UniProtKB/TrEMBL annotation:
<keyword id="KW-0808">Transferase</keyword>
<dbReference type="InterPro" id="IPR013792">
    <property type="entry name" value="RNA3'P_cycl/enolpyr_Trfase_a/b"/>
</dbReference>
<keyword id="KW-0028">Amino-acid biosynthesis</keyword>
<feature type="binding site">
    <location>
        <position position="382"/>
    </location>
    <ligand>
        <name>phosphoenolpyruvate</name>
    </ligand>
</feature>
<comment type="subunit">
    <text>Monomer.</text>
</comment>
<comment type="function">
    <text>Catalyzes the transfer of the enolpyruvyl moiety of phosphoenolpyruvate (PEP) to the 5-hydroxyl of shikimate-3-phosphate (S3P) to produce enolpyruvyl shikimate-3-phosphate and inorganic phosphate.</text>
</comment>
<feature type="binding site">
    <location>
        <position position="70"/>
    </location>
    <ligand>
        <name>phosphoenolpyruvate</name>
    </ligand>
</feature>
<comment type="similarity">
    <text>Belongs to the EPSP synthase family.</text>
</comment>
<feature type="binding site">
    <location>
        <position position="24"/>
    </location>
    <ligand>
        <name>3-phosphoshikimate</name>
    </ligand>
</feature>
<feature type="binding site">
    <location>
        <position position="147"/>
    </location>
    <ligand>
        <name>3-phosphoshikimate</name>
    </ligand>
</feature>
<keyword id="KW-0963">Cytoplasm</keyword>
<feature type="binding site">
    <location>
        <position position="23"/>
    </location>
    <ligand>
        <name>phosphoenolpyruvate</name>
    </ligand>
</feature>
<feature type="binding site">
    <location>
        <position position="23"/>
    </location>
    <ligand>
        <name>3-phosphoshikimate</name>
    </ligand>
</feature>
<feature type="binding site">
    <location>
        <position position="147"/>
    </location>
    <ligand>
        <name>phosphoenolpyruvate</name>
    </ligand>
</feature>
<comment type="pathway">
    <text>Metabolic intermediate biosynthesis; chorismate biosynthesis; chorismate from D-erythrose 4-phosphate and phosphoenolpyruvate: step 6/7.</text>
</comment>
<feature type="binding site">
    <location>
        <position position="99"/>
    </location>
    <ligand>
        <name>phosphoenolpyruvate</name>
    </ligand>
</feature>
<feature type="binding site">
    <location>
        <position position="406"/>
    </location>
    <ligand>
        <name>phosphoenolpyruvate</name>
    </ligand>
</feature>
Amino acid sequence: MLLTLHKSSLSENIPKIVITGSKSESNRLLLLQALYPELQIENISNSDDSEVMQKALKSTSNLIDVSHAGTAMRFLTAFFATQTGREITITGSARMKERPVQVLVEALNMLGADISYLESEGCPPLLIKGELLSKDQVALKANVSSQYISALLLIAPKLKNGLELSLEGEITSVPYINMTLDLLNQIGVKTSFEGNTIKVSPLKKLNTHQDILTVESDWSSASYFYSIVALSPIGTEITLSSYKRDSLQGDSVLADIYTDFGVATLFNNNAITLTKQADCQLQTVNCQLQNAPDIAQTIAVTCFGLGVGCHLTGLHTLKIKETDRLVALKTELEKLGADLHITENSLTLKPHKLFIADVSSPPSEGLGEDTGEAISTYHDHRMAMAFAPLALKTNLQIEDAMVVSKSYPTFWEDLKTLGFKITQ
Ligand SMILES: O=C(O)C1=C[C@@H](OP(=O)(O)O)[C@@H](O)[C@H](O)C1
Ligand SMILES: C=C(OP(=O)(O)O)C(=O)O
């Protein structure tokens, strides 16, 4: 579906936006619930990726299709590897068949699993013959995706002797590993993470008092509202729920990063209020995003909308996500007139004055002649959501807009409640 976003300004009275649960926390807890059925989960994500995970865990079929869900592919590979007596083919979208899983498959096979590739070496689809994993120590590369490490950690407490992982190379997306360990701790599993060694003790059964866990709302989804506030006039406020100060999600670093754009975050009970307090004073924003790769697109587009430059580093994992996000950002921002340069792991955007003339002009009432540029989304929810806030500056179109359902199915409805004018 092609959506047209007419140049908009926000409504006077913005209702509180309730954001669905974190898909990262949800998919971990769903897997743990499959291992420990007594576990109860509240505020589970309504994202496609979490629905895929729930369906796969309930399925009795020997063919599992996870579509675009990276965490589901990685976590379920580890899960089915331990399900003795089952033989599963796990597959996904065309892009999923290009996203590497070799590091995980090799580690599982070293532990005693029986996993083979059905098409390309190193990528899904996989044939998994469930086995009792006999070993309890393995080394693996930690600089490609933290999801491989989380996948192993999630099944670890059900292995006879637990598991010891030795991580090789620079560890990427560390907060996601810590999230996995924290959730394991919350259900009573003992873990340690010292230097490059992670140890997980076995846990046969849950203790009864550790049985209800509440998923915090998704911080990556909150990023689009940070961007909207940053691109709005001073005084603009948006309240989002349910969030907490001590989040397990690394993307909560947004609250710090967006102070550079003049956005303050106030925590109040279970909500956060984002307020535009000042204009961005920087000519160029520098961010190291190795620990928060999913907010790179949001930040790059915020900078573009503000006319501010940015130098974003630590982006090597962006090339193997839903699309090559570095190339996608370059192509789409250039359509809008941006001057930017990408490398294998960084993005540099030059400051510009493209929207200066627009600032004083009132938002257009109708579409007029100009629909604005059509932004391609490459089956990537974050391309659609990261570009949407630019409708505060210009008309634009978003191709294949329903792609947002991968993590945030009600995104467009929520934008309409803020005052965005959106038509099909
Ligand atoms: O474990 C997780 O829930 C995730 C880990 C990250 O992936 P990488 O570790 O591959 O960077 C992140 O980008 C992804 O959206 C979710
Ligand atoms: C990269 C992402 O997800 P996954 O790797 O789980 O497909 C994402 O949601 O930005």
